[in-house]
Each structure stands twice: as structure tokens, then as C-alpha cells.
Amino acid sequence: MNSKISLFVLAAGMGSRYGGLKQMEGFGPSGETIIDYSIYDAVRAGFDKFVFVIRPDMEEAFNEIFMTKYKNKIDISYVFQTLDMVPDWYKLNPERTKPWGTGQALLVAREALREPFLVINGDDFYSQESFKVAAKFLRESCTPTEYAIPAYRLENVLSENGGVKRGICAVENGYLIKIEETFEVEREEDGIVRGITWDGRDMEMKDGDYASMNLFCVHNDVFDNLERRFEEFLKTNEDELTGEFLLPTIFSDMVEDGDVKFKVIETGGKWFGVTYQEDAPIVREKLRKLVDEGIYPEKLEL
What does the DSSP 8-state code read for residue 138? Predict the structure, then answer.
């Protein structure tokens, strides 16, 4: 049994397709952000600590929106992710403008995460059930070699407004074999869901396939392994301007190398996210419906 568990929130994304800081935007009936709903659900699921990764230019807004609201109610902190957070030996291309992806984002939080934790995206709504499932695993089953993915069926995590990136899970006997990072995933006119793999292959998917939504239950022993893999990535990465060190790929490689096992736990909870501006009114409508159904109060309060 693990006595304490943390929530780690990826909130440093650029929001390039959305065109703004969607992590800070109010979508709930009383102006709540999606992060507010995640905090609300996580507190009720029994998470003890909350760690965010943000960019330095987001600090003022983050403090205003989140820290002033929660600092006296929960154990909340944040760390910065910047592109220059690399080993001393690495020569940074001066033309690169963006950090190194979700793997680096987790790595910079090493000192803040001293207990098993759940990774989430700051701009995704995961539902109460997903946090409960994750908390139960983290407390009862998470070990240095046994992690988990609370996963969703692919048909439930598509966008109505264009192609999206999804981690498609290959599963055997309830455990992950690999995650295929797949881009431009969308249902086409013939009803089939298609996308493009990281290496440019066309890929057809089934509605019932499992998708990883950057929702990972991870043991805090991961960081030595993660640091070693980041150094290997920097040594071999040929795309110095836009290459990213991504958690789905990293964890898939760890499984393939036999370092850890990932139990795939299906969550029947609702998921929705904000990728495009056109997604915003749909998210507002869905949150309004959940409030009307009595699942959430009109105004979220801890």
C-alpha cells in the first residue's frame, strides 16, 4: 500500500491549434476551467498532492487563477519547463523555440514527485470514475515495476472538428504491449477511423481499440530511467527544431525493454478535450449537462 499519491498536471502546452491558453479558459457554468474539474474529482478520489508543470510566461496567470484559489485548501505547487532544461553536454540549436515534450515535462518535476502519481493533461476532462480507478491502483497496486493506463475506447475520444493525436494501445491479457503514437486520427466519410503513425504509415483503427489519453499511473522510481532515456533521445534525435520526447513513446519503449509492465484498466467515464476553438462550445455544453444531471454543483468548491 502507498500512503500518499499525487496528481501531476501537464499544463505547459503551447495551444497552437487552439490559438490560446486553453488551460486557463473558463468552460464551466461559473467560469471553471477544465483543470478545476480535475482538481475537484481528484480531491474526492483521495489524491494528496497536486503538482503542475507550466511555462515561465504562464506564471502570473497561473498564480492568479489557480494558486490564489487553492493554496490554502490543497497541497499545490508548480515547476517550470523550458527548452534549455537539457544536460550540460547538449548543444541547443538556437533556432528551436519549443520545449521537448511531455517526457521532459515529467522529468523537470522529479524533485516535486516523491510518491506514486497520476499524469493528466490540463486541457482534458477525464471524469470522476477515471480518477477513482487511478487512485485505487496507485494506492494498492503501483510498484517500481507495475504501472497502469486508465484507458478509453477510441470511439469515445474523437474530436468532431478535425484530426487529433492519440496513443493507440496494443493490449494482451490486460497488459500493454505497445503504444502507437498516431496523428490526425479522425473518422472519415466511409465511417472508418484512420490516422498517420509517427513514422508516416497510414493506420486504420477500430472503435473498440483502447486509447491512452496521457493518463498514466506511475511509480516515483521512474526518474532514473527517464533521465537516461532523455539523454539517449538527445544523442540520437535528428529533428533538433521540433523533435519531442513523448511519454507514450517512452513508456511503450520501457514496456518493450522489460523495465515495467502497464496494466490497462478500462474506464467507462466520460472524456472530452479541447484541441480546436470549435471544441469550446461543445465542452461548455457537456459540462452544463453534467451540472444539470447533478453530477457537479453549479459552482465548484472544495
Answer: H
